[in-house]
Structures are given as C-alpha cells and as structure tokens.
Amino acid sequence: MEIERKFLIKENAFDLEKYDYVELQQAYISTSPVIRVRKKATYKVNISATADDNTSQKSNGTTEYILTVKSKGMLSRQEFELSLEEADYLNLLKKADGNIITKRRYIIPLENELTLELDYFKDLFQGLVMGEIEFHTEEEANKYNLPDFIIREVTYDKRYHNSNMSTMPHTEISDLIVLSH
Known about the structure:
Hypothetical Protein Pfu-838710-001; 49% strand; globular
C-alpha cells in the first residue's frame, strides 16, 4: 500500500548539493489502470568536511528499470513493482502513450523518519517543483502538519498526478506550471 501526500514546493527551499538524487524517466503504457515504466539512475552525494575543504562529490550508483502497476486512489492505493531488463524497458517505452516525464528527484530526510522526495521536472514540465511524502498509515498522513517550504497541497488535484500529466496537451502543461508558482 502506498500512502502519500503531494505538495508544490518552494523552488529554493533546500541546499540541494547535500542530498542524494535519482534521475527519472517514466512513461505510461496505460493510465487506467496505471501501468508505468521507469528508468531510475541513482547518484550518491559524498560530502567531505575538513577544516580546509567542504566539498561534495557525486558518485554514480545504479540504474534500475521498473514496471509499476497502481490501483485507483488519491491519498492511498495499491502499488506493485517489477524489475525489468534494459531491453524490456526500451521495448515497453516504445509502446507508451503521451508525454514522457523526466525529473530529478532529491531524497531529503525530514523529522519523524519521514522523507521528502523532491522532484524538479525537466523538458516539457520544466519549472514544476513538486514533492511527495510517504506515510505508514492514513492517520499519520492526515495528522501531518505542513512545513513552511510547502506552497500548497495537491494530493487531491488530479492534474498533478504524473499519470494525468502524461496525457496533458502542451497548452495545459504551460498552465499547470504557471499555477504551481
């Protein structure tokens, strides 16, 4: 079960050089039910802090290919993932309809063992900054107090679900980006 809330995030709320990130490319084979393929390249940030030097270096991690099926739902829904080989991913990518979504996702630890997955969208969705926080229970999600780096919540706004974004015409994408600020 995936239980998550989605938010529009202030663009410069974090010093991003300190955080690990993943480069994501995802496309949708179907939006009802949601069937997604994703390429996920992980990068680790190594911070060396000495008296004379405080630098961060990026190390290339792994690249994964994933097929995901999601049930209907806004706050919570079933999610199933299956690993793919690169060749299978590329073959399925050709069968995808609509917009391919690319983004850089920063992994930011929060209080109470929560994590913000902060997405800086690229290409068609350049300028959109959105975050997700996953919770263990719906009760925990509903009790969560919004930090000041959040512009507004979009959990129940279907326009901000990636599966819906994949089917948006370009004029609606521009409007969505403008509305997000």
